Backbone:
């Protein structure tokens, strides 16, 4: 199994530190929001329980004073209903909106008040409380008729109902705002991570651009300096070819061949560095391919399109360079095989583009080379210069098109050159 490269570079360290700082900051924000929400909800709950406790105290006082003081006490405490019940839930005294029989199953012990059970109905905005009243001492003659006096020997139950809509609204609002703030913080977190990633990509692209500018200046200077001695060498070789014979001539021809290769390389580098747009004109793509395919002596199969002409706005020589380079690469990729299966085809899509497909059955492009295949001076060939596909991509992009390479079904590679149809609004 191939080991992964975990080299701790300065760029990785910077990215890790940035992500860590952002993550810690946003986690701290989430904790703070959660804590604040908890404090607000707890504060509201304590306020409610305080109101309940004060209401029970006032009710106890009213029971001790007599029936006449109960209505006034209930209204002062915003009580909707009051009931005094037997331990079995039967009513002894009712005031306002109270149960005829107390439903004990509604209450649970979710209050911090040890002697009070509370039930909250969020739909109706009503809070109901009950408490056993065994410690309350009062004169039954002030409140009850004679038939109920015998019931007071047991721990009776006090019931209170409050309008808690304001309390429930505050709690609901607090929780809703907390959830929204948390979602906003999470969204901001991912946005910040995306911005950091884009910023790193931008800086990497800027560094690459600076490197390419420096490389271009160096290549321009180098090609200029190489051309002068090359001209002198070619002149001397022309004289030698006329004056020598035999084995010496063979050696001179080898030198002449390699010098010619070097001259073509400097010309292509110069071509890459100069204006990629050139002098565009209306060119028939079908005609250009028909003229070029026979030059490869049957190594390229031409698939006739359904249309007669395919006008594009392209520099004629640069278009020829693009097509020739792709076909040459396709043929070279099939070297060593019994049969050269290379096809060239033009297809029009519905978006206003022509696609030139050059297909081969070669070794294809490996995954690790896909991102660098169009980089200047990158090549997988032993004798390649790595400039051909870079020039091709630059020419096609300058004309408003695009190029991509992808695997061919059954093996090999497909080169897809996408060129705008002449007459589109975005084509000059």
Residues:
């Amino acid at each position: 199994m191939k080991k992964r490269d975990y080299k701790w570079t300065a760029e990785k360290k910077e990215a890790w530190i940035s992500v860590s700082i952002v993550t810690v900051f946003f986690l701290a924000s989430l904790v703070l929001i959660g804590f604040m929400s908890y404090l607000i909800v707890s504060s509201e709950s304590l306020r409610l329980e305080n109101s309940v406790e004060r209401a029970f105290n006032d009710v106890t006082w009213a029971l001790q004073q007599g029936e006449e003081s109960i209505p006034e006490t209930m209204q002062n405490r915003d009580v909707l209903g009051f009931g005094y019940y037997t331990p079995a839930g039967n009513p002894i005294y009712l005031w306002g909106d109270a149960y005829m029989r107390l439903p004990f199953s509604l209450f649970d012990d979710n209050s911090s008040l040890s002697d009070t059970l509370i039930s909250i109905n969020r739909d109706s905005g009503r809070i109901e409380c009950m408490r056993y009243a065994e410690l309350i001492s009062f004169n039954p003659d002030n409140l009850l008729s004679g038939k109920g006096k015998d019931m007071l020997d047991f721990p009776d139950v006090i019931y209170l109902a409050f309008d808690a809509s304001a309390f429930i609204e505050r709690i609901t609002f607090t929780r809703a705002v907390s959830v929204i703030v948390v979602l906003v913080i999470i969204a901001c977190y991912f946005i910040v991570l995306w911005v950091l990633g884009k910023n790193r990509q931008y800086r990497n692209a800027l560094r690459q651009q600076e490197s390419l500018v420096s490389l271009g200046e160096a290549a321009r200077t180098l090609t200029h300096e190489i051309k002068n001695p090359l001209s002198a060498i070619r002149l001397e070789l022309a004289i030698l070819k006329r004056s020598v014979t035999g084995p010496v001539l063979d050696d001179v021809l080898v030198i002449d061949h390699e010098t010619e290769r070097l001259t073509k390389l400097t010309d292509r580098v110069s071509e890459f560095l100069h204006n990629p747009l050139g002098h565009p004109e209306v060119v028939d793509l079908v005609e250009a391919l028909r003229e070029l395919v026979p030059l490869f002596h049957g190594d390229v199969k031409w698939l006739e399109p359904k249309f007669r002409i395919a006008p594009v706005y392209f520099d004629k020589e640069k278009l020829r360079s693009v097509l020739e380079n792709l076909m040459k690469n396709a043929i070279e990729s099939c070297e060593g095989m019994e049969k050269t299966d290379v096809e060239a085809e033009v297809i029009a899509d519905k978006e206003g583009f022509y696609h030139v497909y050059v297909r081969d059955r070669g070794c294809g492009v490996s995954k690790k080379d896909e991102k660098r295949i169009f980089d200047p001076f990158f090549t997988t060939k032993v004798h390649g210069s790595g400039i051909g596909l870079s020039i091709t991509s630059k020419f096609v992009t300058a004309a408003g098109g695009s190029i991509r390479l992808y695997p061919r079904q059954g093996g090999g590679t497909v080169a897809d050159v996408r060129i705008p149809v002449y007459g589109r609004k975005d084509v000059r």
The mean pLDDT is 77. The chain is about 50% helix and 15% strand. The first strand starts at residue 79 and ends at 85.
